[in-house]
Amino acid sequence: MQLDFFPSRSLTIYLAKMFVLRIIAMLAVLVLVLMALDLLSNTGKILAAEGNGQDELWKYVMLRLPQLISRFLPYSVLLATLITLVTLNQNSEVIAMKAAGLSAHQVLAPLLLTALVVAGLSFAFNERFVTRANASLKAWEGAQYGPIPEETGVRTNVYMTDGANILTAATITGTGTDISMQDVTWYSRDPNGKLAEQINANSASFASPGWRLQGVERFNVAAANTSGVDELIVGEGLTISQIELDSVDADAQGFFELSRSIDAYEAVGRRTSELRAKWWHKLSGPLSAFLMPLLGAVAAFGLARSGQLFVRAIIGMGLGFAYFVVDNAALAMGSFGGYPPFLAAWAPFFLFLFIGETVLIRTEE
To answer: 189 lies in which domain range?
Structure first.
């Protein structure tokens, strides 16, 4: 019986159903509260754009909801774990299960299986909805919540280098020779690396070679004066392929699409550590839901009448939130090249997997 993780079909269904209902309830509470707070902070910006009204507010909600669901689903699993296990403990159901011969791992097995299914659904949800919502919302934010250009391939806040010079664009639309940039800034540096000139332009298009700026305003740093011209060509070293590569957004691409983008980066000798870390995290992020029952398991055991149940719940919550802190820190270090991408994405997961197992075995097995 100790080797059978699901000795009772009825018990497995009972625990899984209880767990799922609490996950849904906690996710709904978190998303509704956070969506309300987010909408309050951004309503002014949305309505500031000409012609925006209630429909645009609902559009923002629809684009923001998938992001919130994806981000806070693991938190919901953690809170649902604590509520489920504390309830079972207070009702002496854990004692009854252990008296029937179930080990701690067998008690947790239905929750772990349910969390694994949730992780799979989270991955599919991210691939199908979250990436598209990220791309649409970033494009809309780049357009200051105004009309988004109808051209395909909208990217926002793009940063490119041509030697010591820098070209930035608020939005980029189109592909190939039809690429168009809006709200463009060109920073020209002298041979000593100091800023010599800043050029602001309304738009830019491919000039083969270089990029033709239109509606130009030039600021000469040495002379401290400003002048304007209709057109100006800059960045002759910037090719179309560089523009397309520099506008890769890992959050707006799915797992397989991002893999192809990374291959394209590596083919031209570009640094891929940040993209690779986020690529791995597209797997480890949803799988973090599987850890939550294990980290919160400390709340399931120990006698409720001992007065330590609340302390155990706090410990379980602390372990869960510590994982999220370490995970975000490791991902940031991986993005800056401090950790290898695989280590940045997976080290927190395996570290807290071992911690959770150690705590469970030492205290209950």
So the answer is: 155-250
By the 10 Å C-beta count (0-12 exposed, 13-18 middle, 19+ buried), 315 is classed as middle
Which tens digits make up the pLDDT trace of 48-97? 888 888 999 999 999 999 999 999 999 999 999 999 988 888 888 888 88
For 203, half-sphere exposure in the C-beta direction (CA atoms, 13 angstrom radius) is: 8
Residue 90 belongs to some domain of the structure: no
Residue 203 counted as domain residue: yes
- Residue 246 sits in a domain whose CATH number is 2.60.450.10
Domain count within the chain:
1
Q: Which residues lie below 8 Å from residue 128, measured CB to CB, with a gap of 6+? A: none
Contact 67, 35 (CB under 8 A): no
On whether residue 318 sits in a domain, the answer given is no
Give a yes or no: residue 280 inside a domain.
no
Residue 286: asked if its preceding bond is cis (omega within 30°), the reply is no
Query: Which backbone phi and psi does 111 adopt, to 5 degrees?
Result: -70, -40
Ordered alpha helix ranges (H), 49-191: 54-90, 93-99, 104-125, 131-142
